[in-house]
Amino acid sequence: MTVVLILPALLPLLPAAAALAAPVRVTQYLTVGSGLAAFTLACALVPHAGRRDLHTGILRADALSAVFVLATAFVYAACAAHSIGYLRHDERARDFPRYARRFYLGFNLFAWSMLCAPLVDGLALLWVAVEVTTVVSALLVAVDNTEGATEAAWKYVLLASAGLGVALLATIFMYYAGSQALGQTYDLAFDPLMKAAAHLPPTAVRLSFVLAVLGFGTKAGLVPVHTWLPDAHAEAPTPVSAMLSGSLLAVSFYAVLRYYQIAATTLGPTFPRTVLLVFGIASLLLAALYLLDQHDIKRLLAYSSVEHMGILAIGVGFGAPIALAGVLLHVLAHAAAKGNAFMGAGALVRAYRTKEIHRLRGAAQVLPWSGPMFLAAILALSALPPFGIFRSEFQIVAGGLDSGQYGPAAVLVVLVTLAFLGLALAATRVVLTPAPASGAGLREPGEPSVWMVVPVVAGLLALLVLGLHPPTDLAHLLMRGATELGDRS
Amino acid sequence: MNALLAAGNAPTTFEGATNTVAVLLLLTEFAMLRASLSRSQVHLYAVQSFLVSVLAVIVAAARDLPELYALAVVSLLLKAGAVPWLINRLLRDARVEIAGSGAIGVASATLLSLALAGFGFFAVGSLDIRSRFLPHAALGLSVSIVLVAFVLMIVRRDVVSQAVGFFSLENGVSLASLVVAAGMPLIIEVAFLFDLLVAVVVFGVLMRVHHHRTASLSTESLTSLQG
After folding, report:
1. Distance (Å) from the alpha carbon of A461 to chain B's nearest alpha carbon
2. Mutation to test the B interface, candidates A128, A139, A158, A229, most B Cβ within 10 Å
3. Which of A85, B69, B120, B184 makes an SS bond possible with A452, Cβ 3.0 to 4.6 Å?
4. Longest CA span, chain A
5. Which residues of A touch B198 (CB under 8 A)?
6. Nearest CA to CA, how far is B175 from chain A (Å)?
7. Could you tell me which residue ranges the NADH:quinone oxidoreductase/Mrp antiporter transmembrane domain spans (chain A) (predicted)?
């Protein structure tokens, strides 16, 4: 069974190597193939990880990691297909082969590092993997070489690296804490650390947890250390934005969850939950306000990512088992919905050649598939039934009420509604307001490429499955993940 | 070992040596804050990295941790050799001598850093984190270095100072890891270092892109993305 563990951590290296030498077409199809294979393997991992932990060498998968691998692999496959349609527009440019080589090399390495992060065993390797995601994605943000892209990439690499410097400090303090129980030299692997967690020195663990939330939270987009996020998401090429939002933020949040597991065992759940609750509510509040008045469609989606990371943090902060299962479901549903929303926005930006919301009008006529599906993705993001996020947010709120945290639960509902207002207003205007008669600069109605439609349909189907009837194996996985995150002390 | 821990009031040679090096590390961080030439900032960073390696050798000798000798060598090659060389090459190509001005004056920045360094030192000193390898003061100093590095990254408005700020932040973390995690397996330490090297290369690429685009190393033009 080690195949499902090893292969996802190696597969994307193949198209990455192909990007260096093979023709663009071959690389593109190999990337799609690798994405689909990674997703199939992740699906194969689900029933196993739902029953027991898998372990081989430096790789390890439990239910928690399987959830994040599944989300990442899905976004990887969808974006790989989308990128073919997205880049078709540039194919006639003179330096396209060079651009495509760089793009696919970075794209596949980015996917590889994000698949590795949840699969490696130990906090040290986890930090290394997350740092690799940063450096690769910073180059991808800059790949378009525009003024905005350069600025965004610099802010991103500086802030994220500084955040990861703090996360490294957290790793060091956790190493110190662990060395009190496990001896001077050990490798920070999860299982021994979790077993010893109850006997670790509380001060060091507390310090380490707060530093980890701040450090990895920088990459997960938690307020107030989210400032790189809207810039990077808005300026990166759209397939990269979708990967940043759908999986990178989640993978960084995964790192926070690992520290949470240890801190909750050592310190008892109250302190770590309160920390996450505070960060979560701050993120949700700020994002909801920014969503009300946004002019750039990709920045709109970026702030929606901050909102959803806030919801994840609040869900863990509630701590009830149903809320924790909701958080894990939310990771999956958000990956599908945000991937879809960014891909839809990408189609819009390609068709209208602008990111300004007030100049995007009548998308339902101009893009007969992408327009309505973009609206559906936004509605899914706003937690409307029958999509997956409705189910997950429902569970999180129920968990909040269950654990007696009425105040935060009420705040959550109010702020999510506020965010819904901002998102829904902008999206309905874009899709349903008729295009101005003059239609300056507009092309003929019609989809730019079928490659940009298929992954969005797949994402919509995934959202429906998650919302209406999650498969039994997946439900088991989520329940087991919730148990892993829940009280162990 | 026990004799060293039980030394009580009179510090041993080892404690004196390590504390001195740790204080020197913090002082180079302050020197970076006031350096007005990009080149001297890079040189100061090289000196600071060299001091980290010296400290690693002292700990290796006094505490009998032979792995730390290897770490000291790798760290010296990368952080005092490769990284400054890469940035210096960039500076030569860019033909820019003077680092960007600070958002606040040098005096205010130094006062702010003094306050933060004091805060870091005493806040961490009051925690109950005892090291078996290094004197307690060194941990507080490492947190001070991290905080001053943040000031450097925040107040300076050019890409070289900001990058050097990040690299020296990493030196502060290295000091912390020598204090409380000296027994960490060498392979993990080396993985951290190579990650840093990759980060340096990416910083270098982005600095070059930035320089091509704006013909300067200043970050003052990077204000178009807001809201």
Report:
1. 33
2. A158
3. A85
4. 74
5. 131-132, 135
6. 10
7. 123-414
pLDDT at position B2 over 50: no
Contact residues on chain A for B195, CB-CB shorter than 8 A: 128, 131-132
Quote the CA–CA distance of A315 and A325 in Å, as a whole number.
9
Q: Residue A243's pLDDT is what? A: 93
ipTM of the complex: 0.90
Cα–Cα nearest to B166, from A143, A387, A154, A448: A154
d(CA A410, CA A27): 49
Q: Per-domain residue ranges for chain A?
A: 3-485
Contacts of B90 (CB under 8 A, 6+ apart): B160, B204, B207, B208, B211
Nearest C-alpha of chain B: how many angstroms from A88? 25
Report yes or no on B157 lying in a domain.
Answer: yes
What's residue B99's pLDDT? 65
How many domains would you assign to chain B? 1
CA distance A24 to A93: 13
| SS3 readout for A197-253 | HHHCCHHHHHHHHHHHHHHHHHHHCCCCCCCHHHHHHHHCCHHHHHHHHHHHHHHHH
Residue B113 lies in a domain: yes
Query: Is the residue at B126 inside a domain?
Result: yes
Residues A121-150 have pLDDT tens digits of 989 999 999 999 998 999 999 888 888 888
pTM higher than 0.80 for the full model?
yes
Low-confidence stretches of chain A (pLDDT beneath 50): 489
d(CA B58, CA B64): 10
Handedness of CA A329, A38, A90, A363 (dihedral sign): negative
What are the pLDDT digits (tens) for B7-27? 455 678 888 888 899 999 999
Q: Is there a domain that residue B69 lies in?
A: yes
**Cβ neighbours of A294 in B, within 8 Å:** 227
Determine, for residues A172 and B183 on separate chains, whether the beta-carbon distance falls below 8 Å.
no
- Structural domain containing residue B77: 2-214
**Alpha helix segments (H runs only) across B64-135:** 67-75, 83-94, 106-126
